[in-house]
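User: Second chain of the day. Same drill as before.
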Amino acid sequence: MHKVSVDTLVVEWGDDVKAVSEDEAMVLVNHQATGDVCTLMMCLQDKGTVVRQMMWLMDHIFKYTNFGIVSLIHGDFFIRQGKAHRDQQLVLLKEHLEKYYRSRNRKWIVLFPEGGFLRKRRETSQAFAKKNNLPFLKHVTLPRLGATQVILKTLVAPQENGTPAGRDTVIKESKSKGLQWVIDTTIAYPKGEPIDIQTWILGYRQPTVTHVHYRIFPVKDVPAEPEALTHWLYQRFIEKEDLLTHFYETGAFPPLQGQTKAISREMTLSNLWLVGIQSLAFLSGGMWYCIFQYFYHCLF
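Assistant: Same format as last time:
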C-alpha cells in the first residue's frame, strides 16, 4: 500500500523532470479542471528556474480572471477555442512565439492538447473516435494537433543528426539549442474528482493528494509530418488512458518500462509559502472587487 504524509499535496511518478529543467521542453498535459494549472505550478516550484521561465497556453477566458493581467505581462498566450477561430489562432500563436519566447528567455511551454476540460469534451471525442475507428477513451479525450504542430515547427532547431530537418524554425539566439524534450504529463485526482481553482483558494474540500506522472521524450523521436505527428500524439493520450485506468483501480501509477516497481516522490511545500500564495489570491480577488465596484459606481 502506498502511503503519504499528511502534509504532502502532490506525489510525482515516472521520469524525474529535474534532469531536464535547464533545457527547453514542451509539456503536454491532460485537462480536467481549472485546478490543473495550480497543480502544475506547485509541482514546478522545486524544479529550478522553470516557473520563472515558462510560457502557458490557456483558454482566453482566463484573460478575464484575477491573474489574467499577470499572465499577459508574463507573455502567456490566450487561445480561443472553436472551428471559427482555429486557423487564425494558430497564426497568432506562431507570431506570439516568434516575438516573445526567445526574447523573454523562455525554456518550457505548457499546453493542454485536448482543447478543453474532460467533462466538456468527452462525449464529442468519443463520437469522433467511434466514427473514425479510434480507441474509446473515458479518462482523457483525443488531442488536437494544431498548437502542438505550431510549437514544434517554430521552436525546434534543425540539427545535424537529422532531427526535425526542414521545419519552419525560428532560432535567433546562437546560444539556444531549441526545443529538446517533450514532457508527457498526466494528472490524476483520487476517485477521478478534479479540483478547481475555487477549491484551491477557499479550501472547502477535505485535504487530498494529487498524483502527477511524467514521461520524457527526446524531440528527435517526435515525427514532423502531420499524419505521423497526429498518430504519435494519439498514442500519448491512449497511454494516458491506460495510466489513469491503472491509477483509479490501484491508487498508484504502474512502473516505467524496465522497472519492477513504480517509484514515487513526495513533494511538500512550506506552510509559509502556502500561506503567502493564499494571501496573494485573496488580495488579488479583493483588488478586482474594488476595481469593479469603483467602475460600477462611476457608470451607475
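The radius of gyration is 20 Å.

User: Great, on to the next one.
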